[in-house]
Structure formats: structure tokens, C-alpha cells
Amino acid sequence: LKMSCFWLYLPLHLLAVACLCHSIKAPTTSSQQNFKADLFNFYHSLLLADGKETTVHLLKDIPKRYYFVLEEGRALAPFTITVTPCDVPVEWSVLVHKASASFLGKGAQGAHNTQEVSKSQKAPSMVSTIFNFKGNSVETYMGMSPHSALYVLEFLSTERDTHITVYLTTDTTSGHLFPELPSDPRLDVIGIGHTTVTLTWKHSPSVLQHRENIQYCLLVNEKHNYKSLCAAETAIRSSGMKLSPTLALSLSPYLLEPQQVMILSNSELSIISKASSGEVRQICMGTKNTYTVPNLSSSTQYYFDVFVVNLLTNASAAYTGTFARTLDEPEPKVMELKDGKVIQVVLDGKNQKFSTLQYQARHKKIQFAFQLCRGQVQVHITKNSRTVVSENISGLKYFSLKGKFLDTYLVQLRSTEESNSSVKVQVSPPFYKPSFPLLPDSLKIKSFSKLRTCNSVTIAWLGTQEESKYCVYRKKIEEEQVWTELQSVDRCSGPESRHKSEKVLCKYFFDVNLQRAVTTETIKGLDLGTLYLFDVYLFGPSGIPVRYHSKVVKTRKKC
């Protein structure tokens, strides 16, 4: 018998010595070669940190090895190894040096893809494989050794370059790095709508124990489910999106990529990432275990994955994902138009939905009138399924059309902006008196700087050849309110919503000669150095108002 002692040196000038002393027979030539190969593998291994998650980058077909040592003081203490593939399936093995002949261990998720060595099993090699797994799911190996031992983890990717995360711990009493999953980790779909899906899942035991440090994050996409958080992030990055390092999103500031939009509402943090391959939503909702995903597209299949995340370590565990298809879009409601009746239509700019109106002609000649109230609107008119009008409108627009008795006209309206738009619509035969007032060439209000004083402002606006009523209103505003006031104007709204104190005057005027159809007003009693918003409302014969473009004027500070 000979006593042999082998010394292993690590890179980075960290001297780690594993003195493996054995009472063995003098090795034969064959066993010597195996023995040297074992030493070579150990020598070219990296030390795996205990109690810390390690990211391992793998090159295709090139194995990578890490080792760790169980010392005498750790004998009989359990240890766990958790490996999380972040892309393609990988093969990984746990090897133990024969110094630990009575090793006993097991796979945490059953014995499939597992090779274990019993106490009585003997092999000519100095190193034995005690666990082996291949796949892209998260797998945990749990083991226990009654003796000090040297272990090697070997990782291999045969498909392409990839990366994985590895977590080793020999201290199972200080809590878990990874949040725990419930005994039934499935997601349940409890409600499906045209644009919503409602999910529920059982609470993680970690949430019940450490509520302040744990939260749930939901991933929604149209491709497939993901078995781990890093697998999801890797796939999304490869599709052209750039994501934040983890879904464990704290409220501390960080920079979003240009393709990302962050929404914080009702203690829920959402990130929407857009790329050519589709949209991915990340939603972190605290510790709620029921959630309704809003603003989905109809008739679309979505995949849902929930991760329970440790906010202190960013480690996560994945529930078993699910999928659901939203309901088909309901047939759009068609509103009937009647001769001479004015209706107002509000258009959803975010979802870009059409509003459809129908009119059956009672006369050969008809006239459509559209008054734009807010935003930008596209009008599309068909007669007996043939397009007769298709254009964007501004202000007040008339379309005179000829056809046959009982021709069917369909009017489709759509907002061309992301914000909501609105428009008033009227259809009537030519002999109907128009409900909308005759408009001047311009709806702009002009102010005269030279006539501006500390307490008065002079404004002017165009009129028409038709006698009409004009009402002037004023309102004090601050500098920071100017943009909001001008952008939020509804040109179809009348002065009924204005405060009585804002009314300045009402007057009637017209002129047959359009060159002289101009009127001016000097508004007095103003405060010096103050911003005012001036509005003029024009009322036609039917009483429908048209609002001129608002004008902001500031009185002089010194006179």
C-alpha cells in the first residue's frame, strides 16, 4: 500500500489545496492514465462560490468545470446545487472523487436523467459521476456526504454558445436564495375577454414568510412560455429588444431603452418592450396572486409566465406557464344616420378602432357635413360598397354626393392620433337648412401688440356674409398652463361649460363684402402683466357653436 497526496493549484493566484490521501494499491498502467486524466480535469476547474449565484458562459462543444470541497467540519451536512439554463438545453454532471466512497445523494426532481453511485459500487477511475441531467429546465441536485470530499461540476452545450446560472449552498439553515414555489405551481386562467385575461396562482411560501422582500412578476408574450427568468430575458434580447437586467424591478431609478415604456400605476410597475417580433410586457404587481392583464388584442393567443422574485438577491423561481386566446372582436355597432340630425362621435385613438355610421338615402342628392371637434380624423365613405370619399378632415368639411333613391352609404371614422378624437356628423338633402354655421376663411383670433396696455387688449376676428352671433370669453392662466389649454380645446363645445365671470360680451354682425367682414373688440379691466386666454364662439341659425382658435395675450407690465 502507498499513501498518495495530490496538490491542486487554482488560477488567479489563489492557492487551494485538496490533499486527497488514500490507501490504494500501486496503480496499473491503465489506472495510472485514468488517474492522471482525473487530476487534469480537477486542475483545470474553477472554484465554485458557496452561497452565491454564479453565471457560467459556455462555448459550443467545449465543457467547462467548477469544483468545490466539503471539509471535515461540513460532514453530514446537506448541500444543494441549482442550475438554470438561460437558452438552449445543456448537459451537466456532478462528479465526486473516490476519497468519498460512501457518498449518498439524490436529484430534487426525481430520478430521471440521473446516475447515482451506491456505497458498494466500485469503479477503476478515481472520479465517479453521481448525477447527470440534460435539458433546459431548472434542476436542483441535493446531496449529503459523511466524509470530506472534492466535487466537480461539468457543463456542456452541444447546440450553441450560451450561458447558465449555478447556485451552490452548504448552509441550508439560513434561508433560501431562491423563492419557494407552492406544491401546485400552475397558473389558472379564470377569465377571458376580448382584450383581457385574468390569471390566478397559489401563493409562494416565501411570500407568506418574507412579504416585504418578495414580489410576483408576470411576463406576457405571443411566442411561447419560458422555464426561467434568464431564459426569457435571453430570448427577448435575441429578438432585438434590450431589457433591464431582471424582472425584479425595484422603484429605484434606472434608464430604460428607447424601445421600452415604463408605466407605474396603483403600485404596479409595467414595462412594455417593442420589437419587430412583437410586444413583451413585464408587470410586477407586488404580492397579489390574481391579476387581470389589460389592453390585449382580440383573437390573439398569449403566453403567460409568473416569476416569484427575491428583491434582495434578484433570484427568481418560475411557476408553470400557461396560455390563453382572447375572444374574437365583436361585430362593430353600426349607428343609423337620420336626415338633418347632428350626432357627435368619440373615437378611440389608442386602439385605432373604426366607428361605423349607416345612411339610406331618401333623395338622389345628399350632403355630409363633418365638424372636427378634437384631434385628427380620417373619413371613409362608401356607396353600395364602392369608395366615394377617403380623406382626413380639419375644421368644417362638406361632401355633396349624387346617387339613387335608397342607396346605402357607410361612413367609417378613425382617429389618426394616439389620443382620442371627436367629430360631429350630419347628413341631409340639399333643401335642408344647414345646422352648422357658415364659417369665415380663417378661425384665427388676432391681437394688436401696439394697442396692448397694462389693463386692456384689442383683438379682431373674421366674420361672414351671414348675420351670426359672436360671444367673447376670457380666462386668466399661468405660463405652465398654456400648452395644456391649447391642446385640450374641444372646438365643438359651447360656452355653457364656462364660468359666468369669464364672459366678456356677445354681439351680432355680418358684411356682404367679405373684405370688410372683420370686427374688433377692446377688452378692458384686465390686470397688468397677466396672461389671458381669449375665446370667440360663433353661433349659427340652429344654435350649434363653433369655437375659434384660442388666443393667449399678456398685458403690459409697465405703461
UniProtKB/TrEMBL annotation:
<dbReference type="InterPro" id="IPR013783">
    <property type="entry name" value="Ig-like_fold"/>
</dbReference>
<keyword id="KW-0325">Glycoprotein</keyword>
<dbReference type="GO" id="GO:0008201">
    <property type="term" value="F:heparin binding"/>
</dbReference>
<keyword id="KW-0964">Secreted</keyword>
<dbReference type="InterPro" id="IPR045805">
    <property type="entry name" value="NDNF_C"/>
</dbReference>
<dbReference type="InterPro" id="IPR036116">
    <property type="entry name" value="FN3_sf"/>
</dbReference>
<keyword id="KW-0524">Neurogenesis</keyword>
<dbReference type="Pfam" id="PF10179">
    <property type="entry name" value="NDNF"/>
</dbReference>
<comment type="function">
    <text>Secretory protein that plays a role in various cellular processes. Acts as a chemorepellent acting on gonadotropin-releasing hormone (GnRH) expressing neurons regulating their migration to the hypothalamus. Also promotes neuron migration, growth and survival as well as neurite outgrowth and is involved in the development of the olfactory system. May also act through the regulation of growth factors activity and downstream signaling. Also regulates extracellular matrix assembly and cell adhesiveness.</text>
</comment>
<dbReference type="InterPro" id="IPR019326">
    <property type="entry name" value="NDNF"/>
</dbReference>
<feature type="domain" description="Fibronectin type-III">
    <location>
        <begin position="437"/>
        <end position="545"/>
    </location>
</feature>
<dbReference type="Pfam" id="PF19433">
    <property type="entry name" value="NDNF_C"/>
</dbReference>
<dbReference type="GO" id="GO:0005576">
    <property type="term" value="C:extracellular region"/>
</dbReference>
<dbReference type="Pfam" id="PF24354">
    <property type="entry name" value="NDNF_N"/>
</dbReference>
<keyword id="KW-0732">Signal</keyword>
<feature type="domain" description="Fibronectin type-III">
    <location>
        <begin position="179"/>
        <end position="316"/>
    </location>
</feature>
<dbReference type="InterPro" id="IPR055271">
    <property type="entry name" value="NDNF_Fn(III)_1"/>
</dbReference>
<feature type="signal peptide">
    <location>
        <begin position="1"/>
        <end position="26"/>
    </location>
</feature>
<protein>
    <recommendedName>
        <fullName>Protein NDNF</fullName>
    </recommendedName>
</protein>
<dbReference type="GO" id="GO:0007399">
    <property type="term" value="P:nervous system development"/>
</dbReference>
<dbReference type="InterPro" id="IPR056225">
    <property type="entry name" value="NDNF_N"/>
</dbReference>
<keyword id="KW-0677">Repeat</keyword>
<dbReference type="InterPro" id="IPR003961">
    <property type="entry name" value="FN3_dom"/>
</dbReference>
